[in-house]
Amino acid sequence: MSDRTLRSRRPSSSATNTSTKKKPKENQPRTQDTSSNGESNPDLSNSPARNSPTPTESTMTHTSTSAASSAARSAASSSASESSQLQKFKFHLKNIPQNFATQKAFYSLLVVQLNVKKIQTLIVNPNRTALLILNEQPPSNLAQQLKTAVNANNIELIPLNQPRMPRPPSERKPTVFSIVIRSVDLGTNENDVSSELQRLNLNFRQIWRIKSMKTNKFTTLIRVTSSDTITIDTLLSQGITLFGRHHECERSHTSAPTPVQCSRCFQRGHENTSCPNRPICPTCPNTHAPGKCPSTDPQCPFCKGNHPAWSLKCPNYKDFAISEDTPIVPMHIIDPPANFADPTESPEEVSSADPSITHPRQLVAYLTLVLMDLFPLQRQQIQKTIEKTSSSFLNLRTTINPSGNRLHFTFNE
After folding, report:
1. What is the pTM of this model?
2. How does DSSP classify residue 84?
3. Where is this region: Disordered (predicted)?
């Protein structure tokens, strides 16, 4: 056969083979993806089985991989932050023996002999001191173990961040108010007044008859001190009856304003934020940190008296001259009128309160507080003016009871 005949037959043979290979595929059942509405998806029915991911699948895989890696990084950073927030125990070591005062020797001593674990940082200095930071709390007798291991009693293990023991809540000293019972016969003594107050269930602290500083003789005035505001209110509004005679009671005079005292140098007349002086100890004349005074008996650094620097008994406090520019300790109201402090009632209860009683009391207390803070040198005059004004214009009898920088109001309708 000629070459032309062979060439003409080769295409037909390849065509036959191709058609033969396609027949099994045509006889295979077609899989169709039926949607929720019953229609078939021609893209899935006419396409052969896919062994390689589509661009959408590739994108989803990349997204999930990125999310996983991001979550891993977040978890790693979270664990790192948690580990950084773990409590660290820092110590400063002094007087390390010379044969242990190297990085290698002291590290071996801690790890091998003393079995100290989780050492984060150890820095041994040439001056035989060291910084030790641990990630876990060491045994409580580590200092004694160190002394025994190095055979030296002068080695010191000083904790740098030793947690302080929580201090018990300090109780504020109660505010003591003073009133004066007028025109008490000299035959009536303090025990008689005490018996009457106990009969009325009124609490008091001290009772004494006032002696005149000019004549050095006892007067007809008896002073009663009490921290109970009910006692103060009762005596000021109702007075007291002794042996059939009614006695009026009056408040004490307004005390002088208290100048601000610096908590750095403990001098009066300026704040600690603007203090130009060096810090001192308020309980002794020595020069050391304020919180590390070894003295048990206080001694004023200014007058050498047996009291701390902040005592009101100090002559420096009594002799301090107050001017208009002197910072003054602001006034504070004891048990202010209803709704003047932080309200505890609901808005409905507050709105339903009687405005004829509550609002004037608030107004009197607020004006007194503001005026006394604005004009501290005129506090006594402000006190008298407020008492007269509230009685004349508000028909509200008011008595302002001062005690240092604290005020208590007695209202009598």
Report:
1. 0.47
2. H
3. 1-79
